[in-house]
Design brief:
The chain is an alpha/beta fold. It contains 14 helices and 13 strands. Strand 5, helix 5 and strand 6 form a beta-alpha-beta unit.
Amino acid sequence: MNKEYHYKLSLSKSLESNPDQIFCYWKGRVALYTALKAIGVKEKDEVILPAFTCVVVPNAIIYLGARPVYVDIDKESLNTTLSNIQAATTVKTKCILIQNTFGLSSEVDEIVAFAKSKGIVTIEDCTHGFGGTNQNRPNGVRSDFAFFSTQWNKPFSTGVGGFLLVNNLDYLKSVNEVNKLLIKPGFKKSIILKILISFKKAFLGDRTYWFFLKLYRFLSKMGLVVGSSSGSEISSTVMDDNYFMGAAKVQFSQGLSALIHLDELMLLRKKNAAIYSSFLQSNGKIYVKEIFNENHSFLKYPILIKDRVSFLAKAEKASVQLGDWFLSPIHPVESEFEKWFLDPENFPNAAYVSKHVLNLPTEIENPEKVLAFLTQNINDIL
């Protein structure tokens, strides 16, 4: 049994599926692109997605000549809603993307049922959600497709990476046809990725977090290391020549190793999320409501801050690890939104949240340092 099959087998056990329904890629966005291409998304088609996402999601749509149609989010769930999707649906709607933001799945069944009634394909954006559940079933199994990310700081990591789950078996043939065009990762890319994975394990901690985060983002933007997003993906809507790339062997090996610890990480995330919720609620701050807990895997714990720039500077000084997903409606883009067919003013909830949101770490053994920092800066929290 080779490592790729073993890896797919491990994934399939968590997803109520078979290994032949899973396809692996260099990055998760390639899985989305594959699904869109397999269902025949083309020029003049529309794809509905939340106006609170990563720029690589609308990029995959635009690369095929289609138009992203954004819908606003709910301020509490940070996901879009069935009513918003219904209002945006037209005869041109080819596909609806259902995102589980920070690990929360909401209104999935309702959105899928609506899409089926209209003959529209659904794809779950589970880049934050592997290992989590919705109504006691794994995230990603209710729609026609689901795509997952295994990048740094995702539910489990292969450095960079991702995979596609095909639930609607009618599309297996077309997915296989699309995959015939995949580029193989070069030896250099695989070696650099392996070095980065080893480096992260050895050196990343509270004291080094901010320095290496800034360095990594700079180097990846310049294309000098294997990064989550290249500079061209943030500044342009033209597909890079090396975009459509398959997975490397190092990703299968790392994935198998990481999956061993997934269950304990899921429990730790939930435990820390409960601690954060209790703290924020007791201090009269905005927190993740109890009604979402059952369907939330808490990859990140969102908080809203009055002045994010100032708060991040304080966190860096205190060596407290904070995340900044999503600092714009199409993270990390902060200008020229028209390139992506987006006017943030049309989506007030997404614009507001993306101006104020930060993420608390949930994969830490002792959250006391984070709580002490929050206590010290309690007046900065909304």
